[in-house]
Design a protein that fits this description.
Phosphorylase Kinase, domain 1; Transferase(Phosphotransferase), domain 1; HSP40/DNAj peptide-binding domain; 33 strands; elongated; kinase; Prot_kinase_dom
Amino acid sequence: MSLEGSKLDHYRLCHLIGSGGMGEVYLAEDLYVKRQVAIKIIRLEHVSDEQDSTRLFQREIQAISQLDHPHILPLFDSGEEVIQDKQLAYMVMPYRAEGSLHDWLRRQNIKQLAPQVVAHIVEQAAAALQHAHERQLIHQDVKPSNFLMRQRSEHPEYPDILLADFSIARFEGSNTMKSQQIRGTPAYMPPEQWQRHSTPASDQYALAITAYQLLVGHPPFSGRMEQVMHQHLHMPPQPPSTLNPNVSNGLDAVILRALAKKPEERFPSVLLFAKAFQQAWQAPGDIHIRLTLSREEAHLGARRHVTLPGRRQISASIPPNSHNGDQIRLAELGEPYYTSGPRSAVILTLVVQGEDIFPPDSEPTLRKTSSAPQLLPPPYEPTQPVPPSRPTSILQSRIKPRLRLVIAAVLGIVALLGVSFAAMSIHQDQLRVQAAATASALQATATQARQTSIAATTATVTAGNRYPSYMPGNGQITFYDPMTDSNDNQWSVSDTCNFSEDGYHAKSNQLNYYYYCNSANTYADFAFEVQMKIVKGDCGGLEIRNDGQGKAYHFEACAGGHYSLVFTPDNTGNNNKTLLEGTTSYIQSATGALNTLGFFAKGPDLILFVNGYTLGHAQDNTYQKGYIGLLAFEYSFQTEVVYQNARIWTF
């Protein structure tokens, strides 16, 4: 039954503007003051639990009546009335024609807001929530649709917000909520709210989810309700900088702290969260310093004292055989992102006397940095096709936790397609190796392809793919591929290695096998970054410096968070060695979750990264150059992995 046109006390209901589980909202005219208002109505006889709904409605009225803040939607009036023999309860509030923050984003077609705009919104929202918390009131439903907009004509890009909808708010320490129903919006609910133990820190968590969404375009967790609950309870969110290059490492630190699973590990108050957010987006970021060395210091190594801005000194160890232009990253020795928070890095660029490429600076310079992939350039168009003869990779023995797996190789060569792959079978205590590939023709042609691709790299590609700040050194972009074009001739194509609109698919269709999809070119010292989604199954990963005969380094990243780096020094498989192995929460394990894999290889130094975080550092100088491969591992389930946006920087 529509109430449009009905009179409710001295208000005339014009038309319905919204409805939900807690009632309906009408645009109405105040006949006394001659203004438009919004009236929220519940029909008491239609609710499934009249007593509980009435209590919630009355508690919302009680909560709002105690609040008086410029960023909280106020209460004008409330009461009960009978219309057409129907008993109604209502509350009257200001009407905001601009709608909610959610509506505003949709109208503007904005997916990612600038950090300074998000900081403005977070500051106002936190002030409103702090006001409520000081009165022992927990909102419990902080999200974009519960912030109404108030546009400012002088600064339309910086809208004011009004916190609304206290329908499921509760007073801290009260036991008035007798219903065992979990209330809230799943995408924004912290772990303790799923367990019916909300605290003021719960609102901070929900505001951090909102800030995350405003920065990257979506909340960190999604799926069916039980999946979302599991992610809130157990899974770490992906750092927002990996999804938006404009998000700094400092903002990552602030948001991820506010999204801690335990309330006591978040900021002491929502206001301190907002203050840290404001400081972090304004923070200068990593400190970049050019450090002058003598030739002897560069050759033998040295320990130097470095003076930072503010006259603070740190000590830096210069490794032997350093070269002009080398960079050393000193983590968490820079300036704090926010008060008492983690520090940025200090980046030392070495200048060897007598070999200057650029004049040394007399003062340290500061600039903002981001650990995120940069904005993508136009698709790279290679000029050299993949040669018809391809090397075959062989997987050597693996050691998994509590399980020693020795792997036999199965060679497959598809000559008509000009591609090949290796399927490796895992056996206990033996390895049978079959290798029948010649790489000489590929070596010559691939070298030419690499030289041609480097020459074809434009200034646009360089500017759009800046070297990741989370990696050491400073490489030059030489390769970018979105990995959606089957004609780009940079990766093998077969039944288990193929292109689609969403990226390059690597598949393993036999239990205890893995498949290797190889690149056209070889690389020596380089940094590699690629985005990976495990669509189904067990593990993906990278093969580095493959010599064409199965000798390589294998970086394996699994859906359960397990990772490893294994090197294979010969074709017997008897001398394999696990260089790194462990389990990390930095790998997003939800099905279809996006993970950014990174690999740094310079001389003997091998460093693994995932989502901007360092997994480990190993040293081995056995393999100096080789092909890159993308992998799909199957240990328990058929596996399919999608790769996107591959980038290579060389030194």
